[in-house]
Design brief:
With about 110 residues, this protein is mainly alpha-helical. Helices cover about 50% and strands about 5% of the residues. Strands 1-2 form a two-stranded antiparallel sheet. Helix 3 (about 55-60) packs across helix 4. The longest helix has 17 residues, at about 5-25. The N and C termini lie far apart (about 80 Å).
Length: about 110
């Protein structure tokens, strides 16, 4: 029986890395600008009247810590306020705050 050196899996990995490097900027990570985040959160709150951390995580594909930071930023700017009696955990909900943008009328 022929002895194998195990170089096949390593070769596949190296080939995959070479192909990925060849793609270059086509696979670069794109972080959303704060104005995009603001618009999406405001639109969501207008439509559903509340938002929570789990929703932020799904909308922006971020982890719990980034979602917490996004919500903290909105609360700090008084765009959102906590509307639930819950202080921590998945049931904490946020709604429009004092600085929540007013809905603009449609232009004709």
């Amino acid at each position: 029986m022929a002895e194998t050196t195990g170089s096949r899996p390593r070769q596949r990995t190296l080939n995959a890395r070479r192909r990925l490097v060849a793609l270059g900027p086509a696979v670069a990570y794109h972080r959303q600008s704060s104005s995009e985040i603001d618009r999406k959160v405001v639109d969501h709150v207008r439509e559903y009247e509340t938002i929570n951390s789990a929703t932020i995580q799904r909308i922006f594909d971020v982890d719990v810590y980034r979602a917490r930071d996004i919500l903290r930023d909105f609360v700090g700017r008084e765009i959102l306020v906590r509307i639930s009696t819950q202080t921590r955990g998945p049931k904490v909900k946020y709604g429009p705050g004092a600085q929540f943008p007013a809905r603009q009328g449609r232009r004709r």
